[in-house]
């Protein structure tokens, strides 16, 4: 079976990814084509952001295929933890699903169920196109085994999410607790980077580790990502497509002007 993020997470100490907010396979491929393979420390996943990005479900198939065939795993962040939204992302070839705002173990268990076929879960059956984003996978192999490798990720980014995090981490079939630091600060009504915010982040990391789950966090640049991997995070998103484009162009403008 092909390399998926789920297997990469167990074979590499840290998995690096980036955030795709633009519905452009060209952008995804341009970045991934320049990256070394994940086994050499390169990018192993792309977060396809259909919650806050400009991406809709009609873009999933093309994006998932582009990312999958560049040797990385497309993880779709659906707008909400609804069964039909998760099903559409999986049927279009997502290697993993991320849902926003997980507040409880019940929320997490529902997401796991939506990602797995019966008898484990309730995912509806119709994978005509899903295998295409897994290079070399035949349809019957997707049905039989690849779907078991779907990465299930929930975001912890609220006060109830933090208060219930040990119970959430214990949910069977859940793979990753992913911190959205911006929402976490806003939902908890605490200062981003302040003591309560950092204590919540540490608690989520500790809960994931104690339960044998992976811990991940959104980062706002390479320095932020380095700090988080040193803290013990297994999976970090380095930055977003648009932040890098904007920063890069302004840096070049400053150079062009001799600033
Ligand atoms: C957050 O920081 O709230 C996220 O979900 C990442 O965009």
TrEMBL record:
- Which keywords does the record carry? Lyase, Metal-binding
**MF terms in GO:** aldehyde-lyase activity; metal ion binding
GO cellular component terms given for this protein: cytoplasm
Which InterPro entries does this chain map to? Aldolase/citrate-lyase_domain (IPR005000), HpcH-HpaI_aldolase (IPR050251), Pyrv/PenolPyrv_kinase-like_dom (IPR015813), Pyrv_kinase-like_dom_sf (IPR040442)
Q: What is the native source organism of this protein?
A: Penicillium olsonii
Q: Which PANTHER family match?
A: 2-KETO-3-DEOXY-L-RHAMNONATE ALDOLASE, PHOSPHOENOLPYRUVATE CARBOXYLASE FAMILY PROTEIN
Note the superkingdom of the native organism.
Eukaryota
- UniProt keyword annotation of 4Fe-4S present: no
Name of the protein this chain belongs to = HpcH/HpaI aldolase/citrate lyase domain-containing protein
Q: Name one Pfam family in it.
A: HpcH_HpaI
Keyword tRNA-binding included in the entry's annotation: no
Domain HpcH/HpaI aldolase/citrate lyase, by residue range, is 42-244
Q: Which family does it belong to?
A: Belongs to the HpcH/HpaI aldolase family.
């Amino acid at each position: 079976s092909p390399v998926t993020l789920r297997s990469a997470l167990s074979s590499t100490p840290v998995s690096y990814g980036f955030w795709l907010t633009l519905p452009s396979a060209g952008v995804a491929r341009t970045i991934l084509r320049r990256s070394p393979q994940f086994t050499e420390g390169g990018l192993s996943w792309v977060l396809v952001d259909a919650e806050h990005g400009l991406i809709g479900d009609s873009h999933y198939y093309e994006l998932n295929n582009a990312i999958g065939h560049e040797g990385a795993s497309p993880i779709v962040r659906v707008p909400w933890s609804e069964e039909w939204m998760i099903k559409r992302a999986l049927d279009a070839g997502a290697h993993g699903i991320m849902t926003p705002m997980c507040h409880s173990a019940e929320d997490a268990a529902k997401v796991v169920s939506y990602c797995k076929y019966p008898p484990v879960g309730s995912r509806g059956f119709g994978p005509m196109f899903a295998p295409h984003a897994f290079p070399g996978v035949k349809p019957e192999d997707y049905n039989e085994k690849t779907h078991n490798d779907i990465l299930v990720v929930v975001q912890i980014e609220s006060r109830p999410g933090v208060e219930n995090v040990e119970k959430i981490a214990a949910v069977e079939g859940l793979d990753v607790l992913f911190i959205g630091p911006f929402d976490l600060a806003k939902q908890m009504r605490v200062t981003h980077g302040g003591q309560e915010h950092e204590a919540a982040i540490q608690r989520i990391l500790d809960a994931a580790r104690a339960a044998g789950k992976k811990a991940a966090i959104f980062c706002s640049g390479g320095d932020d990502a380095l700090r988080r991997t040193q803290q013990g995070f297994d999976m970090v998103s380095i930055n977003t497509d648009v932040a890098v484009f904007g920063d890069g162009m302004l840096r070049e403008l400053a150079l062009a002007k001799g600033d």
